[in-house]
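pinging the channel bc i need a second pair of eyes. not urgent but kinda urgent?? the chain im working w is below, pasted from the shared doc
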Amino acid sequence: MVKPLAPIVHGPILTSSLSVLVSGVLGGAEVFLLAGGNRVGSAVASANGNLWVSLDRKLAPGELVAAVQEITGEESAASNNPVAVIDIPIPLPPPAYGSPLTECMDHVLLLSLVPGAKVTLKAGNTVLTTFDAVGTSSWASFDPTPLAAGQILSAFQSIDAQTSAAAASMPLAAVPQREGLPVPQVAGPLNACDTAVLVSSMIPAGQLELENEGTAQFWVNIAETYWATGLIPLRPGKLRARQRLPGCGSVSNDIDVPVGAAVTPPAPVLQPFCPDARRVVVTGLKPGGVLTLWSKVWNQPTETEIGSVGIGSSSEQVDLPDEVGGTGDIMAIVARQTLCGLTSPSGSSLEFARPGSGALPPPTPAIVPPLLDCMRAVPAANLLNGVLTQVVSDATGQPLSDMVVVTSPATRIPVWFPLIEGDKVAIRQIGCSAPSRTAAEKVQPLPSPLPVPKIVQPVRPGDRLVKIQNCLPGSRLHLMVDGSERASSDQTWSGEAVLQVPAALTENQKLWAVQVMCSRSSNFEGRPVIVSKGRLDIEVAPNSAPGGKATSFTVMARDKDTGNPVTGLPVVLGGIPVGVTGSGFAWTPPTTGASATGLVQGGIAYGNAGFTIAIRQAVPLTLNLFPGPTVDPGKVWQTDVVWTVTPRWGGAAITVNSNVGTAMVPPPPAGENRVAVALAFKAHLQGEIGGIVWPHDVIAINGYLADVALTGLSHALSARFWYQATDVPIVDENGQITGWETRLAAGAQLFSIT
């Protein structure tokens, strides 16, 4: 037998409301709405999760609405935190647009709706649709109607004698691809009982159609990639997907994705909570399943079932019965989820701890100013995790938001309706001895005119992300491309945002940014930002290399305007692709030429940029030894000539075994250019020299000639051979000169470098 827990009632509930949203409902349960202990509405849930329950009567301001659910003969307790009925807001807020707008759509998501109001959507003077608002948001559907790119829609709502201002849309975007629509991409694997699928390659504002074993459903594409939630639980077999543009009569081909057997869901995750707040947040859930909680004495094996709720989203808030944790023992909570008859393991148990207790007092919560007219969320800081938090009007005392458990100290708390200038707003907390209320913050008027958001330049062809600054907190930001909306989002209080367009931007497109608050918008008729190709600065490391030797290079490219590195661009040398910017590659420079010219191909985003690599080629050094002017070639000659060239930067010496020869000196490294030159040969002498007739004599000559600087591509060195006869004294053992004898000497010297 299922033990149901109390469902949670969600606001706003107005005197004009026709139904009430309830979460945590078990499939098959009958849900009763209670006001003052009396039943004021009922409905039977067909599935686990959320349920709209119709009211039997109009409610009065101040009535407190709770809910109970009954299943298998078991009835839950009533909701821990009933929701107070509030008056219809004055003035009525204008609707806001929450989905892409194109010429081929037949659905528009409208926000800031007042339950019970009649909503009208028009294109020019043509009424596209009227409907009664149930909640604060709704898809407005209409018959596929020829709409035009650039056309502007208007929407307003009325109730009793009130009519809101008309909210103008952004100009409708043109759909560049009406034929040959891309086939939807469905992320797998898919399993039985799944109730959500991730799809991509979608055309914004088009429709996704899914069919699973005879059951068909459709979604409006809110983005290029999104989760299609709320599926009827999948059955094993296949899921067929296609997309269409209803207003333009085009449809894609189908794709079939297999649906496998059900798998065990993951263990749920319990977030820190305050026992006296009586509400816990559980994440990691599978929508469509059942979440069951147990309690136990800390570190004891025995568990006691608390009860179950239906899962409507990946994160659920669950109210705990009063009796849980009231034994005086240290208690803990355990959570499991069941889907398709398969039950998950238990996640980590959660102790009944008080985050705000201890030596340090809890922080003082605060509203982060400014609060502006038309904001749809209140930014807050210094909140205490685990406590119940709600935005209230200090002027009227009425709640302005649901009561939610805080899971982050800094957060934005959505309000039911846009804030109103002049109201004073506060945040109240329940649980863990947290300060019960913040100081009130007055809602300020909007600046007039609304500031124009600034698109951060440059914007390059191929970009899909556009950064925008000067944004008002709480505004709806729109990016216009050539006059049509291409992306939009709600803004935080950071003052800047990054919007993603569905298709890469192209050169010369014109961009504007527009922000909207209620029915007011900033001007977008000024000078646009032009999508333009950038210029590149190129750096090569190393910037020189020896010819004929494989060398590792890295080519770095930077945007001239931003200085940011640009990686992945093709690098070409000698007409051959060799690598990409930002990554190393190997290349062998040619053995001729002083340099090599390369090219970085900029692609669609940048112009091409050239660069040069200096090539250090081998230097030919010509060596020539010949007789000097005083040498008689008939009496003196040389043999066994050996030249030796030794680079000063290291490496092996180069030897040339000839009178006239060439030494190929390896390419010198950067900053080095000197070599040492030495000579060895045999000098032969015969005949009359210095008045003396000499028999054949051989003198071995070895000597260092010079330290030579290589300053060009080649050099020629010339050395002269010389000889002379010299009289030298003959000295005896006593140091006395006893006579003279004639000796021969020979050598060589460097006399020219060219």
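so Confidence is low (pLDDT under 50) at residues 355-359. and The radius of gyration is 44 Å. — does that match what u expected or am i reading it wrong
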